[in-house]
Amino acid sequence: MSSSFYVNLGSGRDIAFHLKAYFDENAVVCSTQINSSWGSEELSLPGKLPFNRGQKFSVWIMCEGHCFRVSVDGQHLCEYFHRLQNLPAINSLEVAGDIQLTHLQS
């Protein structure tokens, strides 16, 4: 089983933005879940995964008019274009997996 963590930005029962990092595969996957159905995944395979096991890192998710922009330690990781259009309805954050959350800022 691979080591991974994910971040979900929720809107009611839907997940407007799902970011999942797989340490073993050096992959980051983004997707959306609407009406209990996952959309197609967007896979980012950078030259080197910006996360390192056992080391601190900062993830910034900026919600802009057309997309979510994700940065890790100040370096651009990816853009994910909105699939759920009612952005003001995003009202929850879930962080889980092989990660220890030490600070949250909104």
UniProtKB/TrEMBL annotation:
Pfam families linked to this entry: Gal-bind_lectin
Tree of life domain: Eukaryota
SMART domains: Gal-bind_lectin, GLECT
Plastid among keywords: no
GO function term, MF aspect, one: carbohydrate binding
GO biological process: one example: positive regulation of gene expression
InterPro entries: ConA-like_dom_sf (IPR013320), Galectin-like (IPR044156), Galectin_CRD (IPR001079)
GO-annotated cellular components: cytosol; nucleus
Gene3D superfamilies in the cross-refs: 2.60.120.200
Keyword Isomerase: no
Database matches in CDD domains: GLECT
PROSITE patterns (UniProt xref): GALECTIN
Keyword terms, alphabetized: Lectin
Stored PANTHER family: GALECTIN (PTHR11346), GALECTIN-9C (PTHR11346:SF80)
Name of the protein: Galectin
